[in-house]
Amino acid sequence: MAVSSSTQLGCGRDIDDVWANVDRPPTAHEQECPFCGPARASLQELERATADLRAADDVDPELQPGPLVVDRILEVARSEARRSRRLPLSKPVAGEVTADLTVSEQAVAAVVRRTGDALGGLQVRRCSVEVVEEPAPDPGTSTDISTEAARVPSDVRVSLRISIGPGVSIPLLSEEVRRAVVAVVEREVGMNVIGVDIVVEDVHGV
Amino acid sequence: METQDREARATPRAEPHPQHDVRADDTGTEPGTTVSADGGHEGPSGSAPFPGGLAEATVVGRAQDGDLEAFELIVRRYQGPVFRLAYRMLGDRGEAEDVVQDCLVLVWRKLPSLTDVQAFHRWVYQLATRRCLSVLRTRTRRATDATESDELEADLPVDASADPASLAQYNAQLRGLDTFLRRLPDEQRACWVLRELHDLTYPEIAFAMNLPVSTVRGRLARARQNLTKGMSAWR
Predict the structure, then answer these.
(1) A169 and A115, same domain (yes or no)
(2) Number of domains observed in the structure of chain A
(3) Within a domain: residue A103?
(4) Chain B interface disruption, residue of A9, A69, A128, most B CBs within 10 A
(5) Which residues are A90's β-sheet partners?
(6) Which of B156, B90, B155 is nearest to B128 (CA)?
(7) CA–CA separation, A116 and B197 (whole Å)
């Protein structure tokens, strides 16, 4: 097949212009012109062939990758799973260098997303959790308290970027989300939520 | 190779792009769009919800947070379209599967750097298209043209029973479209497949191919011209 470099027809019009009009009735020029008429007919033929090809491709079982392809992709993703931060479950104790009980930020985010989804009217897109640090207690002041008794849940601040459904009241929803997040993180993770920042970044389903 | 000319071209990368207006730019000027007679060209893909009614941007945001379940939804949504794009570009199942795998693994690795979740759809197409063109360049360098045309012919499906799908396939074959599609220059074919089989807008194709919109328009016009010429000669 000769591949041509010009898209101008013999009458000087560009084939692009004929294409632009192909779904509309022919113009007076197109009815008369010995170049535009045939070009239009063959573009319409191309359009029909394209629709057929597309319909065939979309349902052709041969035009799907084998099932192993998805498995391999997911395997790579799991093996390269992004490590999220570990958050200490309790506040630092005087004299202790590292927290011995931690939870991953992703695990907290998963709990928060599930809770948000269950409320309805919103979709949690991003979720991050920050531990709010206090100055470490002075070792001198905690001498008479047993280490176990001194363990206090970490204070955390949860930041959400959400999308809301159409017609949802942002103030009401925010309050509901806040209460639910505080409750679920305390109950299921054991952390003390001191703040929930909510950014509504989109409206979905419109 | 893939990075050459990057500065000079239209919309080179996925990162910080205030491109929500892409579709709006497009509707007035794009010829021949079947869905946009009223100028309201709805995004084909990004708009269809995922299982559970989740918006694409939600699923993408969760995957950016490292949520593997969300990433799996993305993989299941895009594996078919990327495969069909690659198959129409490369004409080879094995190579098309490799493109699907490379492309979606790259999506996972690069997701954290995608700042505009609304750009996700065209970004996946960009990764996939670049991968296909790179495979084609490698192939050209190896210059295996002699065996290639045999393989391509062998790939043509021949069965045409009575069910509508294969009837459509049969009709398409009758008209010779897939044959002439294979013979188009690679970049023309890429533009045409992205536009006509995957509903990308002109600016989305420009983004995927790292070309100015005007060049995309020219390639599409040439592709249509070459396809109609081929098909007329076929009859």
Answers:
(1) yes
(2) 2
(3) yes
(4) A69
(5) A153
(6) B90
(7) 37
Q: What is the CATH number of the domain that holds A98?
A: 3.30.70.1350
What residues are paired with A153 via a beta bridge?
Answer: A90
Q: Using the beta-carbon criterion (under 8 Å), do B65 and A106 form an inter-chain contact?
A: yes
The answer on A46 and A109 residing in a single domain is no
- A121 lies in a domain? yes
Asked whether residue A111 falls in the same domain as residue A44, the answer is no
Q: Is A18 on the interface with B (CB under 8 A)?
A: no
DSSP letter for A5, please. Answer: S
Domain limits at A184? 86-134+153-203
Residue with the two structure tokens 């949802």: A168
CB distance B186 to B5 below 8 Å: no
Residue A103 backbone dihedrals phi, psi, to 5 degrees: -135, 150
ipTM of this complex? 0.82
- From first to last of its 235 residues, what are the pLDDT tens digits of chain B? 444 443 344 444 443 333 333 333 333 333 433 333 333 333 444 567 888 889 999 999 999 999 999 999 999 999 999 999 999 999 999 999 999 999 999 999 999 999 999 999 999 999 999 999 999 998 877 765 545 444 444 444 444 445 656 666 666 666 688 889 999 999 999 999 999 999 999 999 999 999 999 999 999 999 999 999 888 776 5
To test the contact with chain A by mutation, choose from B58, B105, B109 the residue with the greatest count of A C-beta atoms within 10 A, namely B58
Q: How far apart are CA B179 and CA B154, in angstroms?
A: 12
Per-residue pLDDT tens over the stretch A138-190: 555 555 555 555 678 999 999 999 999 999 999 999 999 999 999 999 999 99
Q: Are residues A104 and A21 in the same domain?
A: no
Residue A114 tokens read as: 């599930």
pTM value surpassing 0.80: no
Amino acid at B13: R
Residues B122 and B207: beta-carbon distance below 8 Å = yes
User: What residues contact B170, with CB distance under 8 A and at least 6 apart?
Assistant: B160
Q: Is residue A9 part of a domain?
A: no
Helix axes B93-110 and B120-142, enclosed angle (nearest 10):
130
Q: Which residue of chain B is at minimal alpha-carbon distance from A22?
A: B32
Q: Report the alpha-carbon distance of residue A177 to residue A123 in Å, rounded.
A: 11
Residue A147 domain-assigned (yes or no): no
